[in-house]
Specification:
alpha+beta; Lipocalin; 8 strands; 18% helix; globular
Length: 135
C-alpha cells in the first residue's frame, strides 16, 4: 500500500510540473507547422504551415489559420480563451454562441520551442497538431 501512495505522489508531482512548465512556455506566437487528421474510416489528411496561434499570459489568444482539409479550403481567424490542465489545454472561442468549437488537446510533447498535441472529435477522428515557437 505504501508503494501505491508513493507512485500516486510521484504522478501528482510530475503532473504539476508539466502544467507549470506549459503555463511558462506557452505564451507567445506559435507557427502551426503541421496538422493531421486520421479518420475512423481510414481516410486521413494533413497540412503544413497552417498559420499562427498566439497565446497571451492572461489566458487569452488569437489564431490566424488558412489550410485545406479533404480538398476544402478553410480559414479561421478568431480570439479565444484557454485553460491549462495537468497534461491538456482547452481552447474556447470568445464568441458566446460558438460553444461547438471548444476543443481540448492532450499535450503529447512539451518543449520550449515545440509542442505536439492530440485530440479527437465527436466521431472518433484523431487530430494531431505540431507547433513551433516563432522568434
Amino acid at each position: 500500500m505504501k508503494n501505491l501512495y508513493s507512485l500516486l505522489f510521484i504522478f501528482l508531482i510530475i503532473s504539476f510540473i508539466t502544467a507549470c512548465t506549459l503555463e511558462r512556455q506557452l505564451p507567445g506566437t506559435w507557427q502551426i507547422a503541421s496538422y493531421s487528421e486520421e479518420g475512423v474510416t481510414g481516410r486521413s489528411t494533413s497540412a503544413t504551415n497552417v498559420g499562427t496561434i498566439e497565446f497571451d499570459s492572461d489566458g487569452t489568444g488569437t489564431n490566424d489559420l488558412e489550410f485545406k482539409i479533404f480538398g476544402s479550403k478553410q480559414t479561421d481567424q478568431r480570439e479565444f480563451t484557454y485553460d491549462i490542465g495537468d497534461n491538456y489545454i482547452t481552447i474556447k472561442p470568445q464568441q458566446e454562441n460558438d460553444s461547438s468549437s471548444v476543443k481540448s488537446w492532450i499535450v503529447m510533447e512539451n518543449k520550449r520551442n515545440s509542442q505536439k498535441w492530440k485530440s479527437t472529435d465527436d466521431e472518433g477522428n484523431v487530430q494531431t497538431i505540431e507547433l513551433k515557437k516563432e522568434d
